[in-house]
């Protein structure tokens, strides 16, 4: 009997220990932890005349921060700057002590770049230049860059943002969405888009001079013909007129609705009308710029295998795919 009682007590103790261990809701070594470096600069407006007002009715520049993670993240203590250099990464520190600086998991937070921090914790002591500059977020250590973006000249009351949210694809947005998901699908101004490109052309497309150049295809997604004479393309966002299309031959430079035009990126010393003064490199931004100096479309040359292109599928859409074979001058499929 005494042995049975001891056995029963031992069993009860064992059950108690197991219960305590399984009821423990504390984090395990494999649980993810909040990471402030998940934050991204998702959208901004650098020339806000009458598009979107702050709580005081003022039309200030603004920057939207997006949190793609599964945890709420607090901006308190991190820095924001409009000039990336060794000495300027701590231009303004987001104040602590307010729940307003928390970006909910999967959510957005708008900062007002108005140089009026006395108006609240979401008003930062920088302003954005409509002619182009840097935006960067730096961690509390003042040196670790969380996210950064360098932009070119902006159009008034049109934002520039990632589409879809958090991606590497940036677009001009007539339908700006501060504090909400970015809306893609609107063709760039005039309906003209960068539709396909190839940055490693060994044997896929001969080009005008049979030299197998890098190339960029433009597509007219609009309803009217567009003459790109006077437009420019560039792979240097500090130099928007790097390669200006001549205006001397509209027959060659006019793109009819639903049609395509291929430009050779070959840096030829004596190029023809449809040749550009630069070559494409891996992981660089390049842009299509209208005669007023406004970026109409901007893309990034992700790394693509030799003789394969990257293109919109279907033409003019916001979905990009690697194409093998490439389709310069024809529908992407």
Q: Care to give the gist of this entry?
A:
This protein has 333 residues and is mainly beta.
Care to describe what's here?
With 333 residues, the protein is mainly beta. The protein has helices at 2-23, 250-253; strands at 40-45, 61-66, 73-74, 79-81, 92-93, 102-103, 108-113, 123-124, 134-138, 145-150, 159-162, 170-173, 192-198, 214-220, 226-227, 232-234, 243-244, 254-255, 260-265, 275-276, 285-289, 295-300, 309-312, 320-323. The strands form 6 sheets. The protein has a 6-stranded mixed beta sheet with strand order 8-7-2-1-11-12, with no helix packed on it. The protein has a 6-stranded mixed beta sheet with strand order 20-19-14-13-23-24, with no helix packed on it. The chain has a 4-stranded antiparallel beta sheet with strand order 5-4-9-10, with no helix packed on it. A hairpin with a 6-residue loop joins strand 9 (134-138) and strand 10 (145-150). Residues 17-28 have low confidence and may be disordered.
The end-to-end span amounts to 83 Å
Question: Helical residue percent?
Answer: under 10%
Written as H for each helix and E for each strand, in order along the chain, the element string is: HEEEEEEEEEEEEEEEEEHEEEEEEE
Instruction: Kindly identify the CATH topology of the largest domain.
Output: Immunoglobulin-like
CATH class of the largest domain: Mainly Beta
The count of helical stretches stands at 2
Trace the largest sheet across and list its strands: 8-7-2-1-11-12
Q: Unreliable stretches, pLDDT < 50, 5 or more residues? A: 17-28
CATH superfamily of the largest domain: Lamin Tail domain
Number of separate structural domains: 2
Which structural class best describes the helix and strand composition? Answer: mainly beta
CATH architecture classification of the largest domain: Sandwich
